[in-house]
TrEMBL record:
Keyword Repressor annotated: no
Record's protein name: EF-hand domain-containing protein
UniProt domain EF-hand: residue ranges: 26-43, 52-71
Keywords noted in UniProt: Signal
Gene3D superfamilies referenced in this protein's UniProt entry, alphabetically: EF-hand
SUPFAM superfamilies to which the protein is assigned, alphabetical: EF-hand (SSF47473)
Amino acid sequence: MSIFTKKTLIGSFLVVASAASFASSDLFDSLDVDKSGSISSSEASVHSVLSEMFATLDENADGELSYDEFAKAGLE
């Protein structure tokens, strides 16, 4: 994924998050349906943009998006 595409996707996700009036921790918590402290690809699938970005954001490729990985995307 190109840097431009990644930044565009992140920007789009930020707009969606702002429009929904979520603080980042609230957004993360709302996506972490099972309250495991991470977002699985299944949990991320409810948001098309996050789902598309998931593999890029999952830096350690463990199939889970930690809050730190989420925050590094500028979503905090």
